Amino acid sequence: MDVAVLIGRFQPFHRGHAGLLQTALATAPTVVIVLGSSFHARNAKNPFTWQERASMIGASLSHADRERVSFVAVRDYYDDNRWAEEVRKAVAAHAQANASTQVALVGHFKDASSYYLNHFPQWQMVTREASSTIDATDVRRVYFEAEDLDVSLNVLDEVVPVAIRQYLKSWSSLPFYAGLAEEHRFVCKYKAAWSKAPYAPIFSTVDAVVTCADHVLLIKRGGFPGKGQWAVPGGFVEQRERLLQSAIRELGEETKLAVLESTLEGALVDVRVFDHPDRSQRGRTITHAHYFKLMSDSLPSVEAADDAALVEWVPIAELKGMEEQFYEDHFHILDYFLHLSEAPR
Hints:
By secondary structure, this protein is α/β, with parallel strands linked by helices. The protein has 11 helices and 12 strands. The strands form 2 sheets. Strands 6, 7, 8, 9, 10, 11 and 12 form a 7-stranded mixed β-sheet that branches. A 5-stranded parallel β-sheet has the order 3-2-1-4-5, sandwiched between helices.
């Protein structure tokens, strides 16, 4: 093998990941680590940036091994085929691979979430059994639920490399930690409220993408999850509502947009379902995004209300530079309707 590839979120990197990385290092002289879920706003599920994850992984390696490892950051496109193609292109570019380059994909089929490993049939699969039953979800739970961080980090001694423990200790002093710990507790409480349901719940929501005069209407979320992050207006569908009614109601409740309901109905140009199983921390949430295009040269008045801490008309030209400030997949919802990136859908 010429190149070994290891794909993961590594939130954070633990001994199970370290075992896979050692297998990759033993498989090929060059190892490319693909850091998934990059270019997102921080959240309790993905608290660390791709640069921070690369730093913590690098700190766990010897100098000789660090020289053999490189990192590529890939965003979540919430489109499996598009994501897999971006991974292949990033690996080929980074490893300077060509048609004759032999590539091995190192991985472990942990559960249903490992299905992404099947998207690379052109690479040789190298599997490794799990060296530990704990995973990154457990590590984050211990980390964010800590009453005494030193005690909690002692609990993690057996499952995270020493360098990672030291990194987590230092990172906890940054301003992000407290807010993400609060968000973690909120999500856990939210899921617990549904834990006694006879079936795992599937939530139905609506979102409203509204454009006018080369601007798009955005809110800043006032509560968890995603507190302080940019989003399109939206919320849960009520029992007796049609989807369009729900989208217009949520839009009015959060933005007090000064546009008649009949005008909005006439401005509807597209509707798309966004249903990736991992799009929301709260659980399986399927949203129906409605795109309203207002044909006016002036921006209607708006006022933040309900769950919105702020509402603004934002120039569409500025959105691409705001990607890491958006809640969950809302940048990708905007990208679909407004064609912010050049990649084909």
